[in-house]
């Protein structure tokens, strides 16, 4: 793969006050790559993902996304860094396990509320773009409905459409299907496959080993705040190099 690196994390450290939960985590992601992060509960997957767009502030280490670099060296979080983080976040969309839709707004208005659209000038063009995104995730027919009337899978797809409305180049997903039954989860994962075909760069934290194995370009195994190993799924999921990874694979398969 010769695609350019669009996101990199170097030696990220994070301590919430009870010992490090990220102990120097590094990762490079290329344009169009689909990366699955797997590992036992509590090993730091969510913290790492949140550090990539500064929903959590790493204590030390450097993140670069789409050319925006923020280097942390243990000091206080400064307003200049917050300014950079804001810029970085315009490139990096995020979807959570709980769908976080606004319950008092229709699906369409949830998508239209994306900050880029709020700032935009042409209401008709924004509406058309929002509808196109809902079409892409298979929700055009329910655009006028409220989140409460949708299935979990539909709500999650609406959350993806809302994140896409910011026109991010990179999407992060933290266990997007963990609250869903398998059939509905498949609809969400299919949206990720479509985005992958279109060249979107995506990082997903998941317990879905089958998706990690079948859909990813790269699988990263984390344990105890470290990346233990990373590689193509045919190696990492089938014949991992480290005993720790093999043990984890045995517990989940
Ligand atoms: N905001 C927080 N404050 C204190 N501890 C936290 C916070 N977020 C996560 N942790 C701790 O950091 C560790 C890693 O958590 P997390 O990143 O959520 O793991 P994972 O997503 O792999 O299950 C856990 O021990 C968790 O309790
Ligand atoms: Mg988590």
From TrEMBL:
Keywords: Amino-acid transport, ATP-binding, Cell membrane, Membrane, Nucleotide-binding, Transport. InterPro entries: AAA+_ATPase, ABC_ATPase_HisP-typ, ABC_transporter-like_ATP-bd, ABC_transporter-like_CS, MetN_ABC_transporter-like, P-loop_NTPase. It comes from the Bacteria. GO terms for molecular function: ABC-type amino acid transporter activity; ATP binding; ATP hydrolysis activity. GO terms for cellular component: plasma membrane. SUPFAM superfamilies: P-loop containing nucleoside triphosphate hydrolases. It is a peripheral membrane protein. Residues 7-249 form the ABC transporter domain. Gene3D superfamilies: P-loop containing nucleotide triphosphate hydrolases (3.40.50.300). Pfam families: ABC_tran (PF00005). It is found in: Cell membrane. Belongs to the ABC transporter superfamily. This is Glutamine ABC transporter ATP-binding protein.
